[in-house]
Write a structure and sequence with these properties.
The complex is a heterodimer.
Chain A (H helix, E strand, L loop, with lengths): L1 H31 L6 H22 L5 H28 L8 H22 L4 E2 L9 E4 L2 E3 L1 H23 L1 H11 L1 H6 L4 H27 L1 E2 L5 H14 L4 H25 L12 H8 L14 H13 L14
Antiparallel strand pairs in A: 1-4, 2-3
Chain B lengths: L9 E10 L2 E11 L4 E6 L5 H9 L6 E6 L2 E2 L5 H7 L1 E4 L11 H8 L6 H14 L1 H5 L10 H13 L5 E5 L7 H16 L3 E6 L2 H7 L2 E6 L2 E7 H6 L1 H7 L8
Parallel strand pairs in B: 3-8, 3-9, 6-7, 7-8
Antiparallel strand pairs in B: 1-2, 1-4, 4-5, 9-10
Helix pairs in contact in B: 3-6
The chains are: A mainly alpha, B alpha/beta.
């Protein structure tokens, strides 16, 4: 029982990070029909910029409070990523607006490589320790179940950001213009909407969220690396597809569901594939020996947790390509 | 021809529009004077919709001049043309199907920030089109074609246009709805809005218009007063579906 509760907590934390990233994918897809594969790398840039800023502050203002340092790092990272997102759309995607779908898709993959390579040149190939500015000493709300302050902050702030985004999109003039543009660029421009500006804004918001997700990711795991954006990027893309790409609520739901499945799955994957569970007559001699000594023979350890994302992606694409909250995508993709 | 000698609100001079190598509009001249209701009739593929889209800015002009209030606006982007007073109700209505009716109307007032004025104009739309008010909270994609057309026109009016371009507002609608819509068109013209109306239902269009242009194969082939065109045997046989018993 404690294991399950623990895995649910872990799943919610990682799931809300996925959700923040997935929002960027789904917003851009909704408005341009483009899968922005460089989105995961924005997250990486966010984490590394924050790291750079925090290192600078630690060196020059050693007395500054750690929380303030993290906050400054986060704000600078978010601003840097917003500018980066704007520049990428402006230089790489805008001129391909009317090109066949494959062209911007391949360009996005190219931008992804470009960002990773630049980051490698700037920050090197090594894993950097990301300073743990907020206590990671686990609290124990229930006997045997742990949650760290960092995790609590991740949960609360991502919930706030997502709530804010929902309000922005559904209740403001800008959000209305975004939804109108997503549905029909031509008619939106007939309403006086500068659709290029709306598209820029979408990239800016998505990139800002990715930067926050990157800082959360690094704060939680304590590392930053030039290629760290790839896996969460792909998983967040899976989350967006799972929820129904183009659908904001879907991205949030998909992120959380994926986080939970992955975490709970990883918690039981080892035990479930433990060959010691086989009936005796199926076990071979050396196996019986290992097992009888209290050992185990796990086919898939929890290191294999990444398979869940891709299994889910496969299943969704085969059986429900519109995702859980089903947006019509057939006319787009 | 119009009686006043002021500069036209809209003037197309040898306007050409093409899709790639295919020239859809081959150098046409059209003039609209403030407060007029003018129609553009012609068969399918004559270039009527293309002309409206070029005026509103959703299609680029290849050659010729597009003059609005005495100034060339060939290169003014679409979203700024609305700010100058040119509104288009596009072919097929162009409703935002995933937005509610109210949100659609508010999109029409996107360029405005005079809250009280917007509310007053909303009420005015509701008076002219009570059905729109009944459907206010509904997602627009669930509306009938006629209701969508009403929303599209109401939405265009909320931008307070000086020049309203209507593309086939009667298409596919029940006669009663068409009647409602043409009542609104007449009211709007009386309030001083200039209207360029594209219609396949030439009979209907000519009946309400002070003048009309006939378009064929990307060219203007005829232009006259509404009554004269209605009486013109060529027009009658080609566009009003009557037997050509004059030939």
């Amino acid at each position: 029982m404690e294991t399950l509760l623990q895995q649910i907590i872990n799943g919610l934390v990682v799931g809300s990070v996925y959700a923040l990233i997935a929002l960027g994918y789904t917003m851009v897809y909704g408005i341009l029909g483009l899968i922005n594969f460089a989105h995961g790398d924005i997250l990486m840039v966010g984490a590394l910029v924050a790291l750079q800023v925090i290192s600078f502050l630690q060196e020059h203002f050693p007395t500054m409070s750690p929380v303030l340092m993290l906050l400054i790092g986060l704000v600078v990272a978010a601003l840097a990523c917003m500018i980066l997102g704007y520049v990428i759309e402006r230089t790489a995607y805008r001129r391909l607006r009317n090109a066949p779908r494959l062209a911007p898709l391949i360009t996005a993959i190219g931008v992804s490589f470009l960002l990773q390579t630049l980051a490698m040149i700037i920050w090197g190939r090594n894993y950097h320790n990301f300073p743990q500015l907020i206590s990671t000493a686990p609290l124990q709300p229930v006997e045997g179940v742990f949650i760290t302050p960092v995790q609590i902050i991740i949960l609360i702030s991502s919930a706030l950001l997502m709530g804010g985004l929902i309000l922005l999109v559904n209740k403001t003039r800008l959000g209305r213009a975004m939804r109108a543009t997503a549905e029909n660029h031509k008619v939106a421009s007939l309403m006086g909407v500068d659709t290029n500006r709306i598209i820029s804004t979408t990239f800016i918001i998505g990139s800002g969220l990715a930067a926050v997700a990157g800082v959360m990711f690094s704060s939680n795991y304590g590392v930053a690396h030039y290629a760290m954006g790839f896996t969460p990027g792909i998983k967040a893309f899976t989350a967006a597809v799972l929820g129904g790409i183009g659908n904001l609520g879907g991205a949030m739901l998909g992120g959380v569901v994926l986080g939970l499945v992955e975490s709970i799955g990883a918690g039981y994957l080892g035990t479930a594939t433990d060959l010691c569970n086989l009936p005796h007559w199926l076990q071979w001699a050396s196996l019986t020996q290992t097992c009888s000594n209290g050992g185990s023979f796990e086919l898939l350890s929890s290191n294999y947790q990444d398979i869940f994302a891709f299994v889910i992606l496969g299943i969704v694409l085969i059986f429900r390509p519109t995702g859980l909250l089903g947006e019509r995508v057939s006319d787009r993709a | 021809m119009p009686t006043n000698d002021k500069t036209p609100i809209l003037q197309l001079q040898k306007l050409q529009v093409s899709y790639g190598h295919i020239q859809a509009v081959k150098g046409i001249d059209i003039e609209l004077y403030s407060g007029e209701l003018v129609c553009l009739i012609g068969a399918n593929g004559a270039g009527k919709t293309t002309t409206l889209n070029a005026i509103a800015g959703t299609l680029p002009i290849r050659d010729g001049q597009l003059m609005y209030q005495g100034q060339a606006i060939n290169n003014v982007p679409t979203h700024q043309r609305l700010r100058q007073g040119i509104a288009l109700v596009p072919e097929g209505r162009g409703i935002f199907t995933r937005l509610t009716v109210e949100e659609n109307l508010r999109m029409g007032a996107y360029i405005r920030d005079d809250k009280d004025g917007i509310e007053a104009d909303m009420e005015r739309v509701f008076t002219m089109l009570p059905r729109v008010k009944e459907r206010l909270g509904q997602v627009a994609g669930t509306l009938s074609g006629g209701e969508q057309q009403m929303v599209a026109i109401g939405r265009a009016l909320l931008s307070r246009p000086k020049l309203l371009l209507l593309d086939e507002p009667s298409m596919g609608l029940a006669p009663l709805v068409v009647e409602t819509i043409f009542e609104v068109v007449q009211t709007v013209v009386k309030e001083g809005v200039t209207i360029l109306l594209v219609e396949q239902n030439a009979n209907l269009a000519l009946e309400f218009s002070s003048r009309g242009y006939v378009m064929d194969g990307g060219n203007i082939t005829l232009s006259d007063s509404g009554e004269a065109l209605l009486a013109n045997p060529k027009v009658r046989s080609a566009y009003l579906g009557e037997e050509a018993n004059v030939a």
